[in-house]
Amino acid sequence: MLEVLIGAAGAAAVTCAGYSAMAPASQLYGRTLVRGSNPRHLALTFDDGPNDPHTLKLLEVLARHDVRATFFMIGRYVQQRPRIARAVAEAGHALGNHTFTHPNLIFSSEMQTRSQLAECNRAIEDVVGQTPKLFRPPFGGRRPSTLRIARECGLAPVMWNVTGWDWDAHSSDAVEQKVAKQIHGGDIILLHDGSHKQLGLDRSHTVAATDRLIARYKESFKLVTIPEMLLETTVSTRLATRR
After folding, report:
1. CATH label of the domain that carries residue 66
2. Which pLDDT tens digit goes with each residue over 204-224?
3. What's the pTM?
4. Does the residue 144 lie in any domain?
5. Residues with catalytic annotation?
């Protein structure tokens, strides 16, 4: 019986560890931003760019609605599409580090992780002239050392609590409906303007869904960048601590 209990406890520990390594909301391996403190805010975030022509089309949608978003960029794509990366920054959107080649960091050594973050930082700095302050792990995969290294690199880890599953969607309607079912306020919405698999992958459904989502929610919520959400969340935490 003791062996059975030990085995069950071991299996549960492995399951918990696996969940904590990949689940966006888990805080077991270290604190990350999953959602904001203001229920009247929403943050649109886009991963895996820059990617032409869809990142540029997305910029047109955001400009038409006068909305700023946050783009977590892959370093090697920044090097290959510097003009698009600069256009994102010049439009006033926030840029974040999404590693240099998009590996799942739960399988990376500390040295590999540090190199991925440093190379991505360098690519963004060289192209747009600003140092990223945000980090999102590819696939959401992280270990305690992943988050520690990110913070040592001056990067705040950012996850999400709403996803459109747009990497596997075939229509803008499907993306919009999946997001709409999860919106409660204070949400960080995960979408993709590119793909880690290749440049040029079709993200037209994400562009169209973004247009529809902004139109749907801009009267009820203020759409903010992650730095804006972080600032307000920090202020709210300090006020709560003083009470």
Report:
1. 3.20.20.370
2. 999 999 999 999 999 999 999
3. 0.90
4. yes
5. 47, 192
